[in-house]
Amino acid sequence: MRDLLKRLCLADGVSGGEGSIAEIIKQEIDGYVQYHTDGMGNIIAFKKGKNRAKNKLMLDAHTDEVGMIITSVTSDGFLKFETVGSINPSALLCRKVTIEGKINGVIGTKPIHLCKGDEKENPPKEDSLYIDIGAASKEAAMSLVSIGDFATFKSDYTLMGDDCVKSKALDDRIGCAILITLLKQEAEYDFYATFTVQEEVGCRGARTAAFAVSPDFAICLEATTAADIADLPEDKKVCCLNKGAAVSFMDRATLYDRSLYNCALNSGILCQSKKAVAGGNNSGAVHLSKEGIRTLAVSVPCRYIHSASCLCSFKDIESALNLAQFMCNKICSGDIE
Amino acid sequence: MELKKLLEELSAATGIGHINSARDILGRVVSPFAETESCFGGLIARIDSGKEKTVLFDAHLDEVGFIVTDVADNGFVTASACGGIDLRQLPTREVVIHGKTDIAGVFMSTPPHLSKDEEKLSDLSKIKIDTALGEKAKSLISVGDFITYKPSFVSLCGEKVSGKALDDRAGCAVLVALAERLHGKELPVNVVLLFSNSEELGLRGARTAVFGIDAHEAIVVDVSFGNAPDLPASKSGVLGSGPMIGISPILSRSVTRTLESIAQSNGIAFQREVMGSATGTNADVISISRSGINCGLVSIPLRNMHTDCEIVDINDINATVELLSEYVLKGGSANA
Known about the structure:
The structure holds 2 protein chains of 2 kinds. Chain A is α+β, with helices and mostly antiparallel strands. Helices cover 25% and strands 25% of the residues of chain A. Chain A has 9 helices and 17 strands. Chain A has helices at residues 2-10, 19-29, 89-92, 138-142, 170-184, 204-213, 258-265, 283-286, 314-332, and strands at residues 34-37, 43-47, 57-62, 67-73, 79-84, 96-99, 103-107, 131-132, 150-153, 158-160, 164-167, 191-196, 217-225, 245-247, 271-273, 294-302, 310-313. In chain A, the strands form 3 sheets. An 8-stranded mixed beta sheet of chain A has the order 1-2-12-3-13-16-14-15, with helices on both faces. Chain A has a 6-stranded antiparallel beta sheet with strand order 5-4-9-6-7-8. In chain A, strands 10-11-17 form a 3-stranded antiparallel beta sheet. The two termini of chain A are 32 Å apart. Chain B is built from 8 helices and 19 strands. The chains are: A alpha+beta, B alpha+beta. At the A-B interface, strand 7 of A face strand 9 and strand 12 of B.
């Protein structure tokens, strides 16, 4: 799964431009499942298990990542942009980016030597930032880049620390890698898998995918903010690296099904509660689909999420895979209240 | 030699304190053309033509970075700055900690739900470095270890490139290319190339090295602010429009005018950088070394100074090499 995760992370797929991610997924799952791609770009797959499921289950992971979209080109050849999904300005400043997978750029800034007073301590606002591709004029820039092109962080996939990985887009290529792994191995029960687009711009793909699949239950496989950084008190950490997958009871978009939550926590698999009502994921769209769908979120803790340097632990990825499989069997076998 | 390749190798190298692979590379690439010796963390390369006059060229090989001041049980490292660091761009920045081995680190960032909008980045000790090593960090990293930005070199449009430490490896590349260009030629002056250390800590390496060299005149090759949307034209040089010849009360007017006239007569594009006082470069100390050395300054325009994505234009480096080569062949400044 590690090689697969690397391939998925290094491919670019900003919300609305997830095509290259979908290609990798299709290559991987081809021959293991029946699948089709819907009008949004979601991949909807059916995995045949050894047994028929008592409950219809949908496992979801989103294919898109945060990034930038080019909005205009200045008279001297610099590119103005908006972020796609939320990105902290300090995570944008002085980052290398790739535009449409082919043009290198740098998000430039005024050198600190020439900043005065407050300027030195406050990251510039997003609308004052620009991408520098080295073009000497507007014409030179426009010959390489078009308005509406996507840009992603240029960041390598690096193993670091104690069995951890640093990369862009771990949110949510981790979910994709876990889901692909589940589809490629033998399943006890039938289940549906959705690889959905446009999560970072409002959980849009998951809305239509959930409608199409129309499941009884859903599990969203995600990456979520880990705030277990230095100098933060215990109660602010949300979840921690190396303590297993994080299971949510509530976030800004969803009040989760309590019996699924309890079942996950009592699974005996290393996992933790997500201890904050913060953020949101595809569960928000999925659990309100049709007449309502009982939903669980299983997330891999991720430090510095939505940056070029997302940091996750393989121990937690392993745990999320095991927990997803456990819950899959619990739900499909009907062994859930 | 291919300048872009050399620059990429130099950008990836480390030059901070005693961690100095930059000097090893420079020694290797310049030694076919000059006699090398080391000096106070730097490197001196001499092209001796047996003439009376000696012209010195200086570029600093050190880069900005950090030094470890604390390693916590949870694997987070506290650092202090070596040189001028823009704290605003540190969160989520990748670094290499030069511990027992090279160790990857990421400057931590506070998640949005915990950070306040008005939160300022004013205290480096609060932006710790995440090693993801937990308690193992203490066995691999010690107080006093140096830290540099993680190398990553990319090509941009035209001949522009982006990477760390181009301040002043771009200048170092100029000196190497100059040595190659002068090699085998009958020179009217002795040439000494100084790759100096500890510029970013206060122009230290050049101070002592130049004392030992005893040159008649000197030209410092450094970088200066390149044009960008948020910079006034008066404070910046345009990338790709040639080297910036420094004009300052502390610089030798004679050297400066000679540089200008050589550029003009050889059709080498150049820009002027006027400073009302000291230059903030090694020229400030070299000019008052011993009983005074006539000193000039040539700067390569560079964007995003002191970050890991500094940008220079290779054309400017080539033009600088050409200018300095003509300067040597003319025998330097007449009055110096």
